[in-house]
Prior knowledge:
The chain is mostly helical. It has one domain.
Amino acid sequence: MISNARFWEKISHYLKVIEPLVLILRMVYGDDKNDMTYLYEAMDKAKENLRERNPKAYRKWWAIIDKRWEMTIHHDLHAVGYFFNPTIQ
Length: 89
């Protein structure tokens, strides 16, 4: 399996998919800018990055991200904080 070229092509593809999301996790668990207002902007940028890297399959990944986002992370109060954050606008 390790010498299988197709295996490594798939691994490379999935690494490109998850890289923007891993960067968000690093931001959230790091010391700087880890509040929810920055998370909204970072998620938007990560999704756009995902679309650029995977123009044929990004919608599938966006649906997964959006579902998880709505179930666990998104709250109206956080959205208001993002909207009124002067460093983002």
